[in-house]
Design goal:
It is an enzyme of class 2 (transferase). The chain is an alpha/beta fold. The protein is built from 14 helices and 14 strands. Helix 12 links the parallel strand 9 and strand 10.
C-alpha cells in the first residue's frame, strides 16, 4: 500500500495566524474567545465568538484580489501558502500531480446575508456580480488551485463540522489509490455573522455566557452551556512517502488510518451512546492496523455541548475499552471555539504537531469534570507524553462522523 505522510502545515486560527503561533496558543490553553467586533450584536442573544482579528490577506493576494474574495477563501489561500512553503514545495513543480481538497461547511454565509440586505434595501442593481463567487463553498479549493497551479484532483467536501476531517481522509485515499502524488487539504470557514449567530442561538446550541467570553467554551466540564463559534483554516500537505523521500522533504507524521460513518439518526443530535462516532473510530483503527492500547492521544470533537461531550466519551470508552483509561484526550475548542468546517483541518494540524513534539494540548476551562465524561481530558495544562499514535475526531449535523489516525514517523 502506498504510504501517506504529512510534509507541510499551514494555520489561520483564532489562536494565531500561522502554524507555530496557533500551536503555541493551543498549548498555552488561553482562550481566544472575545466579544464580537465585526458587526453590531446589540440585538443578538449571543455576543461572543473566537474571531480572528489580526488577519490580513493583502500581502499575499494584493488589494484588488483581496476585495474580490470572501473571508473563508482568504483564510484558505493564506494557510495553503504557509503549508506549501513549510513543505518546501517548488512552485514550478506543482501541476498535474498535485491536487487540492478542502472541507467547507457553510461558505460565504456573511456575503449572502449582506447581499440579501442590499437587494432588499437598494435594489437588484446594487448587488455585486461577485456575490455567488464570493459565497460558493468550492471557491476555497478552486481559488487555491488557481493561485498555486494545482491541476490535479480539486473539489470541496461539505459534511458540516466533519468537513475538514473528511477532506483530509479522502485526500489521503486519492494518494493511496495512485490518483495523485500530493494533496493540499484541510478545512476552511468564516461564518461568524448575525444570521449564523441568530440561527445557532435559536437552536440553543451556543453558549450565551456573554459576560465571561474566555471561559464560555469549556468542553467536558460539568457547567458547560454550549459551543462558541470560531473561524479559520487548517491545511496539510499530504504526500506519497516515496515521492516525499525523493525530494528530501521533512516529514511530520504518517497518516495511517481513516474511519467514517453515518448516525442515520437525527439532523442535529448524535446517536445514542455515540454509536455512529464509535464506528468511525473503529474504522480508523482497523484501516490503520491499530490496537486500542496503541492510541496515546485523541483530539476530541469536544464541542462543549451537553450531548456531544457525553456521547463522545461513551464512544471512546466503548471502542477502546480498558485502554480508554490511559489515553490522553483533549478538546482544543476550549481555546479556538468551534470553527465548523475548519475544525477538522485545524485540529488535524494540532494532532500532527502533538505527535511530532510529544505534547498533549490541554482542554481549556475544564475545572469541574462532568461525571458523565469520566476519561482523562488533560484539564487546563499541556502535558508531555510520548505520542506514537493519535486520533482526531469530528462529527457534524446530519450525523456524519470522521476520524483520522496519525503515527509518529520513524
Amino acid at each position: 500500500m502506498r504510504r501517506v505522510v504529512v510534509t507541510g502545515i499551514g494555520l489561520v486560527a483564532p489562536t494565531g495566524v500561522n502554524a507555530q503561533t496557533a500551536w503555541q496558543g493551543a498549548l498555552a490553553g488561553q482562550s481566544a474567545i472575545k466579544h464580537i467586533t465585526r458587526f453590531d450584536t446589540d440585538e443578538l442573544p449571543v455576543r461572543i465568538a473566537a474571531e480572528i482579528t489580526d488577519f490580513d490577506a493583502t500581502p499575499l493576494l494584493g488589494s484588488k484580489i483581496e476585495r474580490q474574495t470572501s473571508r473563508f477563501v482568504q483564510f484558505a489561500a493564506v494557510a495553503s501558502d504557509e503549508a506549501l512553503r513549510d513543505a518546501d514545495y517548488d512552485a514550478n513543480k506543482l501541476g498535474d500531480g498535485c491536487g487540492c481538497l478542502i472541507g467547507v461547511a457553510i461558505g460565504g454565509l456573511g456575503e449572502i446575508e449582506q447581499s440579501s440586505c442590499l437587494l432588499k434595501e437598494r435594489g437588484a442593481s446594487k448587488v455585486s456580480p461577485l456575490t455567488l463567487p464570493y459565497a460558493i463553498p468550492n471557491m476555497a479549493s478552486g481559488f487555491v488551485a488557481i493561485q498555486n497551479g494545482l491541476r490535479g484532483p480539486n473539489f470541496v467536501l461539505a459534511t458540516a463540522c466533519a468537513s475538514g476531517t473528511h477532506a483530509i481522509g479522502e485526500a489521503a485515499r486519492l494518494i493511496r489509490d495512485g490518483q495523485t502524488e500530493m494533496m493540499l487539504t484541510g478545512g476552511a470557514e468564516a461564518a461568524i455573522c448575525p444570521l449564523s449567530i441568530a440561527s445557532f442561538s435559536r437552536m440553543r446550541a451556543l453558549s450565551s455566557d456573554n459576560d465571561n467570553p474566555q471561559s464560555a467554551s469549556r468542553p467536558f466540564d460539568k457547567h458547560r452551556s454550549g459551543f462558541v463559534m470560531g473561524e479559520g483554516c487548517g491545511m496539510l500537505v499530504l504526500e506519497e512517502y516515496e515521492h516525499a523521500k525523493a525530494r528530501g522533504a521533512k516529514i511530520y507524521a504518517e497518516l495511517i488510518g481513516y474511519g467514517l460513518s453515518a448516525d442515520a439518526y437525527h439532523i442535529t443530535k448524535p446517536a445514542d451512546e455515540g454509536e455512529g462516532l464509535a464506528r468511525a473510530i473503529r474504522g480508523a483503527l482497523e484501516s490503520g492496523s491499530i490496537n486500542p492500547d496503541d492510541v496515546d492521544y485523541i483530539n476530541a470533537h469536544g464541542t462543549s455541548t451537553k450531548a456531544n461531550d457525553m456521547l463522545e466519551s461513551q464512544a471512546i470508552g466503548n471502542v477502546l475499552g480498558e485502554a480508554a483509561k490511559t489515553v490522553s484526550i483533549s478538546s482544543t475548542k476550549g481555546v479556538t471555539g468551534h470553527c465548523l468546517g475548519a475544525a477538522g483541518g485545524i485540529e488535524a494540524a494540532f494532532t500532527v504537531l502533538a505527535v511530532k513534539e510529544n505534547l498533549v494540548p490541554p482542554t481549556a476551562n475544564l475545572h469541574t469534570p462532568d461525571p458523565d465524561c469520566p476519561l482523562d481530558y488533560t484539564p487546563t495544562k499541556a502535558r508531555e507524553r510520548n505520542i506514537d499514535v493519535a486520533l482526531s475526531n469530528s462529527s457534524g449535523f446530519g450525523g456524519q462522523n470522521a476520524v483520522l489516525a496519525f503515527k509518529k514517523f520513524v
